[in-house]
Amino acid sequence: MGKQSRKRNLRRINIVVTAQTVGSLAYLAKMCNYPEIGMAVDKLTREKMLSLRAWGSGSRRAKRGDHDG
Asked: What is the 3-state secondary structure (H, E, C) of 37-52?
């Protein structure tokens, strides 16, 4: 099954960003060999959510009084 024939869970959104942000997203997409900047937005969002999840689990540990070391 080719890439084109697979069903993809995509949604179309419109966002307003600064010219600098568009340039940064285009640069990131080019560096990662993505065909469009939407994939760069996906990448950034995915990485941020993972970092928030890791941060959240660390803060819960600290609230319980657990310490590393």
From this structure: HHHHHHHHHHHHHHHH
